Amino acid sequence: MRTQRPGRHELGQNFLIDRNTIETVVKLVAATGGPIIEFGTGDGALTLPLERLGRPLTGIEIDGRRAARLAGRVRPSTEIVTADYLRFPLPRAPHVLVGNLPFHLTTATLRHVLAAPGWTDAVLLMQWEVARRRAGVGGATMMTAQWWPWFDFRLAGRVPAAAFRPRPGVDGGLLTMTRRERPLVEDADRVRYQEFVRRLFTCPGKEVVPKRLTAHQWAEEFRLRRGNPARARGASPNRTGPRR
Fold this sequence. Notes:
By secondary structure, the chain is of the alpha/beta class.
């Protein structure tokens, strides 16, 4: 396995070097279908194993030198694009997202992804505590609660800091997100629903979100039009206690 060159500090580059974690990511992506878009290819630690899935693959890398080197190593069917993935226009056609995210860009990345059409599944490596909160473990964040009716969030595992070079000060976590086949709230009510969630999470005083309140119950309470939850992919999270 080729040695990873040190990452650029200003880009927040912590490269994945742990074979077990790489295999886990590839297995999670293998369980999905469709073309793959990888955020932040680096030197190809994930890109080259993902190629073995035999699916169309586009890698996005902001560091032009690394992108050029990797472009010379990948198969003809793989495209390496030099770009900032936060500015990269995601296609409307179905695709799968995967990436080892710079920890300081996790929230910006999720905002970019959640608002984008087309993608069906995402497998993202981020800071452990952020992955836990986004998956609603121990209490949901406002961002997660605002998007629950449209996406299923799951925590897929913890990744030790030793799995990266240079080594970060905290562990990483694998978060998977799946777009529901049938949303629990109609798209026409998205703005109203998300504003309702924002008010709940920003309301001063005592806790205002009833414990064990599901997305179904929220929809009933606020008379939001729901899709057909019987065909939703994954159960609606049912967590306790909000977090901002």
